[in-house]
Structure formats: structure tokens, C-alpha cells
Amino acid sequence: MSRFLIVVPPLTGHLTPLRPVAARLAARGHHVVWAGAGRWLRDRLGPVAEIHDCVPASFTVGAREPGLRGLAALRFLVEDFLRPLATAMLPGLRAAIVRHRPDVVVTDQQAWAGAYAAAEAGLPWATSASTSAELCDPYPPNVHDWLRGCFTHQRWVADPRLSPHLILAFSVPALAGPAATTSPSVRWVGPVPQDDPGAWTSPWPTGKPLVLVTLGTQSTETGARFLRECAGALAARPGLNAVIADPGRVVGPCPEHVHVTPWVPQQAVLKRAGLVICHAGHNTVTESLWHGQPLVVAPIRDDQTVVAAQVVSAGAGVRLRFAHATAAHIGAAVDTIRADPGYAHAAARIRSACRAAGGADEAVTHLEALARSTTLIPEVTR
Questions:
Q1: Keyword Oxidoreductase on this protein (predicted)?
Q2: DSSP secondary structure of 204-272
Q3: Residue range 260-305, pLDDT digits in tens
Q4: Distance of CA 76 to the CA centre of its chain
Q5: Would you tell me how many other CB atoms lie within 10 Å of the CB of residue 204?
Q6: I need a labelling partner for 48 at 20 to 30 A (CA). Which of 72, 235, 342, 362 fits?
Q7: How many CB atoms lie within 10 A of CB 17?
């Protein structure tokens, strides 16, 4: 039995792929401890999970302006969230390592403190690449140099986003494309659907093609206009059924074939969908393609632009401009995908690659191998 400390930021999408991995580790007899924002983790993992709270109650993040895009959004993410979060978490993670004595630290690529604390303690650490965007090195040289400069305050690690020991990439090269890193530490394990997909009962007795519309968990404030335009586009297509996830309750009345709900069991709906309209969030995209569903993607910010480009390059979807897409644009994109079987064929090809990648079981196999390893690639010079 090995001991694993799993470090995550308080971001739902970054927790998602690690939950089935942790469940598989526990099922194989390993000891798993989660580290992060204690109350936030407890709300999502339930009363049984072992949790080490390492985010002080005093830690706060200023509100991000809804319209922030591009480099301004990246600067906010790094300077106003990721770096302060790493500083806040590091003392608690040092204590967690002393208390729980992990053999391996598994840290999300945006929980930099996990890499710092593990390397400082001389422990092997694995990166959970909850998005493949940064494996493609998407930044121009000046941004790349600025970003690397953000890591220099910790001398233990050259880049806390990319472990030299093991990177679990929850995607596949068939989607990420040839630009993805060829680092020897990357293991493409594919998406990891939740073990319990939930139940969903269709509100319609007929079997018309189904479209799912979702903007994930972080876009409620910015998504109102786009969701309403989606509703308009789908209302004009009575030959389709549509489910719109509307947590902010911003979509008004719709015809019977357009079902608007604050929340959907996404995995259960994806099993029946034929097309997905989304913000190009990595989890939504990979889960959709795991089910073989082509996509209309309208990226908002952060890694979503890179993921949307991957979808288009792979031939599995159509990209729209989030801030400018109208019901006419959205409807035309839906019609294009439905009229051209090439999109469905590309999605099916990626589905096959995803299912062959191994998912949570493959991730656990690599983590177990790392725990057994006695020879590690050295970190930066001490």
C-alpha cells in the first residue's frame, strides 16, 4: 500500500478528473488524502474523504471582471489567484507532508504549492493536467518568459505546472494534436468520466435528436446573453430537442422542445445527446468526445481558446465568437454539423482514442509505478 496526497485548487473542473482516480487508488488499498480548501472539498467529496485543510480562511480573491479576456485574463489568473493561492497553501502543505507522510504528491497544474512542497521535501510528484492547453505551450515567447518568471520565488521547481516525474494528461493526442508536448513524463490517459453519471429522464416522449447546451460551472455571470441566443436558435428548430443548463436562471420562457433547467447530470445527458454547444471547457469537451458528440464551441477565456482550436483542428466541431454569436450564427453552426457527417466521424474517431487510453485505471497504474520508483528525474539545481 502506498500513500498519496492529492492537492487541488478550489476549482470544480480541476477536481473532476481526480475523483475517479482517487476512488480507484482507494479501491486498490492505497491511502488517499486530499489537500486544499477544506470546507470546499468537504462539500464536494462528502463526509468519508480524508481532507487536510491547507487554505487559510483569510485567503480571498478579488472578483474578476466579467469581460476580462486574453492576456488581461491570464494576468489576473496568475497574479491575483494562482500565485497568492500557492503562497497561502504552502505552509499547510508542508504540515500535511509531515503529518501524512505521502509516498507521492499528486498536484493539479494550477495548485503550484503541491509541486513546491513535494520537491522541497524530496518527494516524487505528479501533475494532474486537468486541461491539455498548457501541454501545447500556447504562449508567445514574451508571455512564456513572463510566466516562467512567476515561478522564480520558489527555487525548488523549474515549472510547477509540469512535473519531470509524471504528467497525467486527461486528454488524447487525437484531440490535443501534434503541437502537444513530447515530454517523456507525459502520459495521455484520456478523459475520466465520473463513476456515477447520475440519472436523467427525458422530458419528451419522442426520440428527436438532442442538443445539450452548457457553459460549465464558472460562467454564470458572463453567459446570460449567449444562453439566450442559444435558446432562440434552438427554439427555431422544432425538429430538435434541447436541454439548456441555466444555473443563473437567465433564459426566459421557451417552447416545449427546449428544456431549460438550472442543473443537469451532464454524463447522463451526454449519453443521449447528438450535439453539444459549450464554452470549450476542457472537461465538457473531453466528456462530450468520450461519448462521440460533435461540438459547437464558443470559448470565453483562459484555456478555452486553445481547447476550441483543438476541436476545430481535429474536425470535431465548429467555433463561434462567444461575445458576438447570435441566434443566427448558433443555428447555422448547428445546421452545419448536422448536415456534414464528417464532424460526427471525427468525434467518433476521438471517442475510440479516449476509450482506448485507459482513463482512471491507466492513471492509477502510472501513479503506482511512480510510488515504486527509486530513481527520479532531478528537480532544478538546489
A1: no
A2: -SS---EEEEE--SS-TTT-HHHHHHHHHHHHT-TTSEEEEE-TT-------TTEEEES---HHHHHTT
A3: 999 999 999 999 999 999 999 999 999 999 999 999 999 998 889 9
A4: 19
A5: 12
A6: 362
A7: 29
* Whether residue 65 has pLDDT greater than 70: no
In the chain, where does the domain assigned CATH 3.40.50.2000 lie? Answer: 3-190+358-372, 210-356
Q: Residue 136 has what pLDDT?
A: 80
- Amino acid letter, residue 94: R
**How far is residue 170's CA from residue 178's CA, in Å, rounded to a whole number?**
16
Quick check: 176 and 310 in contact, CB under 8 A? yes
- pLDDT score of 157 more than 90: no
Q: What's the Rg (C-alpha) of the chain?
A: 21
Backbone angles phi, psi at 164, to 5 degrees: -75, -10
Helices (H), the chain: 12-15, 18-27, 38-45, 70-75, 83-100, 112-120, 141-149, 173-176, 224-235, 266-270, 282-290, 304-313, 327-339, 341-357, 359-372
300 vs 131: CA distance, rounded Å: 15
| Segment holding 276, helix H or strand E | strand 275-278
Enter the C-alpha cell of residue 143: 508571455
User: Mutual orientation of helices 341-357 and 359-372 as an angle, nearest 10°?
Assistant: 30
In CATH, which of 1.10.8.60, 3.30.420.10, 3.40.50.2000, 3.40.50.2300 is domain 3-190+358-372?
3.40.50.2000
Q: What is the pTM of this model?
A: 0.91
The domain over range 210-356 is classified in CATH as 3.40.190.10: no
